[in-house]
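Q: I'm writing up a methods section and want to include an example of the input and output format. Could you take the sequence below and give the corresponding predicted structure tokens, formatted cleanly so I can copy it straight into the document?
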Amino acid sequence: MDSSESENAPPPPQGETYTYRASLLGAPFSFRLTDEGLAFEAGRRAGLIPYQAISRLRLSFKPSSMQSGRYVGEIWAADAPKLTIFSSSWKSMMIQERQNPAYSAFIAALHRRLLAAGAKTQFERGSVPVLYWPGLAVFVSVSLGMAVLIVRALQVDAKAGAAFIGAFLALFLWQGGNFFRRNRPGTYRADAPPADLLP
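A: Here is the clean output for your methods example:
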């Protein structure tokens, strides 16, 4: 194929490719869905994983200090490294950009490919149960403890302190509640990816 033919080649279908930068100085991670399987490239590491070889796929919500709305896809396959796909990408020292539409389109396309290939993939959602449930217990305990502090502050007429703790509790419940709601452990079908984990 000459250069003019390659230049006129149609672009890949929407959602069939995805690229992000996991760290500011590291090489970008690139993924491409082909008829043969999932192709990946990260610096010197590259490969092609047949869809039938993908044994597990987990979707979760993992906010970071630089990006509060970050989603993650994790892929396990036989004879291949674990692959992690983030919905955000480093752009500069202070900016981690969301790529929600592109991420969602790629993850949805991957599910369609796995379904069409008849892969025996286990589809998981949320956090690992052994980490999720103790974390949820701590979250509830801390929330109740702060609520008790608010009541005691009001009993001694420390309204400013009660208001401060109340504001902190509201923020804690909003952020923590969102995390635990989205990361509830479970499984799902390939034809019904969890909407709350596809931004």
